[in-house]
Amino acid sequence: AAAALIAAAALVATAGPAATQAPGPLRTIDPGAFVPLVIDRPLGTATTIPDPDPGSASAGRLDPAAAIREPGAGPAVTARPAVDQPPPPIRAEAKPAWRRAEYSWYGSAFYGNGTACGQTYSRTILGVAHKTLPCGTRVTFRNPRNGRTITVRVIDRGPYVAGRMWDLSRATCRYLDNCYTGMIQYRIR
After folding, report:
1. DSSP one-letter code for 109
2. Where are any strands of DSSP class E within 23-181?
3. Would the pTM of this model clear 0.70, i.e. be above it?
4. Share of the chain residues as helix, strand and coil, in percent rounded to the nearest 5
């Protein structure tokens, strides 16, 4: 019934091919052009379609425990066969290669001052100053002379000497046993 209403509305509402026209005088519509729509049953009554194959099993005639399968198919599979799976590959993350850069260290003249990252600089604070890396970035340093390494965070800004990349805190350079200026190896984490 709904499909018939939609089809009838489409026939009534369709005026013909669309075209651009200049405005013209209003025309009257002939009332004989409309055909009344008569519905032979009240709306809301269910419409059923007869089953084309009365011998087939429908939802109303199936046992809830019955397996549904295609006609002509083999027996229904009830369990999956066990399959040996190979172990997942072990993935080792390669550490970034050591890089080299010039460094210096800063000490007693800065004790008690605040760092650019919000800490108070002291003789025991472990950290490093860098001009652009975000505060908290982890960097590992290695003294190439003795092999000692330490991982510290960026805690300040600097150095402000041309050509130098890092300013180690006093505690960091003492741990590395390298409180000088020169080249140092580093990795950014």
Report:
1. G
2. 99-106, 128-129, 138-142, 149-156, 166-169
3. no
4. 15, 20, 65
With tokens 């650019």, the residue in question is 116
Nearest to 104 by CA among 167, 39, 176: 167
Compute the CA torsion angle 46, 51, 57, 61 (nearest 10 deg): 30
159: preceding bond cis by omega (within 30 degrees) = yes
pLDDT, tens digit, 9 for 90 and up, residues 129-154: 999 999 999 999 999 999 999 999 99
The CA-atom distances, in angstroms, between 181 and each of 39, 95, 109, 163, 175 are: 99, 26, 17, 11, 15
SS3 170: helix
Angstrom CA distances, 4 to 11, 55, 75, 96, stand at 11, 32, 45, 73
12, 34 Cβ separation under 8 angstroms? yes
